[in-house]
């Protein structure tokens, strides 16, 4: 049962849960945005698909000893999570060069990063989520140096687990973005969502893009692609 709306983001609404005061309800919206909200659309079914997909990914990560805010899927578009105080960092892990790193630093498209490359962005819409370094992250958030290193190590562990998951459904995990949050007891856990909105996934056979880039670049049907990912995940379990 949900109580008052706590926050509305671009892709989700966050409600307080009536049953427990340290729990929230995430309601996935049909809206899609790109380029910091400059491109916008709504797709019937997108909220359900990202809810269903992330409600399969978080338990998979739990099985791989990755703690997150996720508790359970409640219905088609909602999931129950522990309340966290989001650390305003977007932690991006890259296995192959594409997207902003190609434009920003001139890497050739598909350059492999081995070990995977981690980048930090400051989660701040007014500033357009700028790339930052570790020292900036320590100044701009309440995390310690040790916690920052733990977050990075966790991001790499998540990368290993997710690459395996997606490989098993014939998808290559190119890169993705994570957010972490602090539980009431201070522990830092994976938060937000893990979905085709926040990952780049390429079909291993056809190289077809199967993520939000189909919307960002206007090259395909977002709902069809997300539905295909969900079906592959369902077939796996
Ligand atoms: P980028 O190449 O545009 O920096 O994106 C890196 C990864 O982060 C890619 O998988 C998409 C994801 N991402 C988000 O989840 N949210 C964002 O706002 C941006 C810019 C990227």
TrEMBL record:
Protein name per the record: Phosphoribosylaminoimidazole-succinocarboxamide synthase
Report the residue ranges that make up the SAICAR synthetase/ADE2 N-terminal domain in this protein: 6-232
Instruction: Name the pathway it acts in.
Output: Purine metabolism; IMP biosynthesis via de novo pathway; 5-amino-1-(5-phospho-D-ribosyl)imidazole-4-carboxamide from 5-amino-1-(5-phospho-D-ribosyl)imidazole-4-carboxylate: step 1/2
Tell me which species this is from: Ornithinibacillus caprae
Q: Which GO terms describe its molecular function?
A: ATP binding; phosphoribosylaminoimidazolesuccinocarboxamide synthase activity
GO BP, one annotated term: cobalamin biosynthetic process
Q: What are the UniProt keywords, alphabetically?
A: ATP-binding, Ligase, Nucleotide-binding, Purine biosynthesis
Reaction(s) catalysed by this chain, per the record, are: 5-amino-1-(5-phospho-D-ribosyl)imidazole-4-carboxylate + L-aspartate + ATP = (2S)-2-[5-amino-1-(5-phospho-beta-D-ribosyl)imidazole-4-carboxamido]succinate + ADP + phosphate + 2 H(+)
The organism's lineage is: Bacteria, Bacillati, Bacillota, Bacilli, Bacillales
- Chain segments annotated as coiled-coil in the UniProt record: none
| Family indicated by similarity | Belongs to the SAICAR synthetase family.
